[in-house]
Amino acid sequence: MIKAGTILEAARELNIKAAIEIPKDVQRKVEQMAAGETNHLSRYVLEKILQNYEAAIKDRSPMCADTGLPRYYAKIGNDAVIEGGMVNLERVLRQATADTTTSIPLRPNRVHPFSRKDHNNNVGIHAPTVDYTFEPDADWMDMTVVHKGGLFGGEYRMLFPADGIPGLKRFFLDSLAEFLRRGMACQPAVIGVGVGGTKDVCVRLSKEAACLRIVGDRNPDPDIAKLEEELIELGNNAGFGPMGFPGDASVLDVHIEAAYAHTGGMPVGIQQFCYAQRRKTARIFSDNRVEFREDPQWFTPYYRRDTID
Ligand code: SF4
Question: Which residue, 12, 34, 115, 156, has fewest beta-carbon neighbours within 10 Å?
Answer without folding.
Answer: 115
